[in-house]
Amino acid sequence: MTERAGICCTGNWIVDRVKTVDVWPQEETLANILDEETGTGGAACNVAIDLSRFGLDLRVSGVGLVGRDTDGERIFADCEAAGIDTSFLRATGDAPTSYTDVMTVRDSGRRTFFHNRGANALLSPEHYPLDELSCRILTLGYLLLLDLMDEEDAEYGTGAARVLAGCRQRGILTMVDVVSEDSDRFARVVTPALGYVDYLVINEIEAARTTGTEIRRDGTLDRDALERAAGILIDSGVKEAVVLHTPEAAFGLKASGEGSWRAAHSLPGGFIRGSAGAGDAFFAGIVAGVHEGWDLRESLGFANAAAASCLRHPTCTGGVGSAAEIRELALGLSLREE
User: Whole-angstrom distance between the N-terminal and C-terminal Cα of the chain?
Assistant: First the structure.
């Protein structure tokens, strides 16, 4: 095979129906829908489109499953418009395209998800044509939201771990994200994969549940605890670096022991139109940094700014601009305390 290049984004491909509401209602009460938009979503789709929007001349492709339906056609159309190679994105008649109803509260930007797992639940290691991939980096997200990939595997621990191991055997760097699920499955599903992950990029909720570390106390971020959690994840097998992001700041820890903090941006009133996709935009920023050879601190700063840019639009990718636009945006925003 010729020298590896580009990024293959794999895992969840979703259509998001984003509704902005005036309040989050109590059961059996009413909230008003103020705005409504439909867009593509899911870790694989969002990261692929964000990478394309960065304008860094990256070769981007995808692996996954969608349904043979209108939502699946929309995902293919959005990928084609973004220049994403969909040769290994398959359509199935056995399930509908996965979709999520995203309810975003106008004043806070906080969102709640109602998800139909659909075709993503059928994605398995057999759908990964590892010997045909020419990418240098493969991203996988989200663990805990891919039924067959999360299933136990007698040899590797989980189906996802099998895929990641196969990538590393072929010289492909692996980068992984996790969904913020309210469950006790993190140790069972996430931990087996860590030994085959080069870069783990997750938020503080996911880090806390995976490591059993209390990272927030009375709502306040405990930075020492966050650093300990990153260390536990490195000790659990992550090969190159762990990156943990929070609303206040991002922290990266290399396997060598080098750590770096970067403050998140302080956003003016009215800036946030929705927060769906911000974590994926952050992930895409780190992926771009790894591909382009940026140092950890630069990657963290760019990822924070990419996430901020995403907040400007209620859909998952509509607010993300080019790398130059993201850097210009960052210059105009103040930072939270380092």
Answer: 45
